[in-house]
Amino acid sequence: MSSLNGKYISLSTYRRSGVSVETPVWFVEMEQKLYVFTGGDSGKVKRLRNSSKARIAPCDARGGLKGEWQDVEARLVEDRATIERAHALLRKKYGFQMWLTDVMSKLSGRLNRRAFIEIDLPAGD
Fold first, then answer.
1. Domains of the chain with bracketed CATH
2. What is the per-residue pLDDT for 2?
3. Under a CB-based contact definition with an 8 Å cutoff, are residues 52 and 74 in contact?
4. Which of the chain's ends, N or C, has fewer CB atoms near its CB within 10 Å?
5. What is the mean pLDDT of residues 81-104?
6. In degrees rounded to 5, what are phi and psi of residue 35?
7. Do the strands 114-120 and 33-39 form a parallel or antiparallel pair, or are they unpaired?
8. For 84-93, what is each residue's pLDDT tens digit?
9. Percent of the chain scored above 70 by pLDDT?
10. pTM of the model as a whole
11. Which residue, among 86, 18, 83, 82, has the nearest Cα to 47 in the 3D structure?
């Protein structure tokens, strides 16, 4: 996949009806997988509980595509050590923006309700 060094990917997950829902997200790469975070009660989480089918594409902050879609498998991460490592990489990559996001999430009580998503990179990438 091109542009994995960018700041955003569009993560597309699928409703039960088969309709895709696309969302620009921050990401980090770790051990041939991508990791993103979201609210634990978000639509992405609900859709991934139903199906691991997803797709990703490089994009800008508003979701404007900068590359081709790639079919992937995605799942919710339960392993605390993996979550902590992914979160540390997000803090390193996004710096002050991630720090501010963490502070706002902590103040609003959402920090501990976050969900982390693991995305298998397409073969050959």
1. 8-120 (2.30.110.10)
2. 43
3. yes
4. C
5. 96
6. -130, 135
7. antiparallel
8. 999 999 999 9
9. 94
10. 0.91
11. 18
CA dist 61 and 23 (Å) reads 10
Q: Order of strands, edge to edge, in the sheet holding 20-25?
A: 20-25, 8-14, 53-59, 70-76, 114-120, 33-39, 28-30
Beta-strand runs (E) in the chain: 8-14, 20-25, 28-30, 33-39, 53-59, 70-76, 114-120
CA trace torsion 108, 41, 55, 78 (10° rounding): 90
Tokens read off for 100: 């501010």
- Collapse the DSSP code of 22 into the 3-class scheme (helix H, G, I; strand E, B; otherwise coil) and give the result: strand
Output the six-digit token pair for 81: 């050590």
Tokens 């634990």 sit on residue: 40
End-to-end distance of the chain based on CA atoms, in angstroms? 6
Per-residue model confidence as pLDDT tens digits over 50-72: 999 999 999 999 999 999 999 99
Please report, for the chain, how many H helices and E strands are present, in that order. 2, 7
pLDDT tens per residue across span 3-22: 467 899 999 999 999 999 99
